[in-house]
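Changelog note: in this version the structure field was regenerated for every chain. One regenerated record is shown below for reference.
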Amino acid sequence: MRGTDFISIGKLAERVGVSVSAIRFYESKGLISCIRNAGGQRRFLRSDVRRLSFVLIAQQLGFSIQDIANELSDLPHGRTPTKADWATTSERFRSILDQRITAMTTMRDRLDSCIGCGCLSLKACQLYNPEDRANIKGAGPRFLLGDRPEKNKTDND
């Protein structure tokens, strides 16, 4: 590789819009790696700008550092990832994002109807869970997640 393929930690931080300490953090988590020049200074591939931009976007979308590291582990180290390399990573992330979008849309729609309904009726409330009957369907807010409450003749509310 040519010397022009590499940039300093300061230049990488400037290009990505984060602090130098953030670059060191991402390096410590294995999201990027550097080489050292003859003077011991860190040098990063120019393509790490794209890699770290992806990291920042993924973090904003709620992915953990570990999730991101797992996805980036399939990208090549020591060379600039190709369009095909990125397409594979993008496809996996797209699938996860589509699942999250569906879940968030469902949650938003159900919360809108529940919180804004003003019905004051526990018979129609998706949050109402007498005697914790939803527990048999699993953990969490089962009715908001899509499960339907079973009708019980003893519900008089």
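Spot check on this record: The chain is about 45% helix and 5% strand. The helical segments are 9-16, 20-28, 48-60, 65-72, 83-115.
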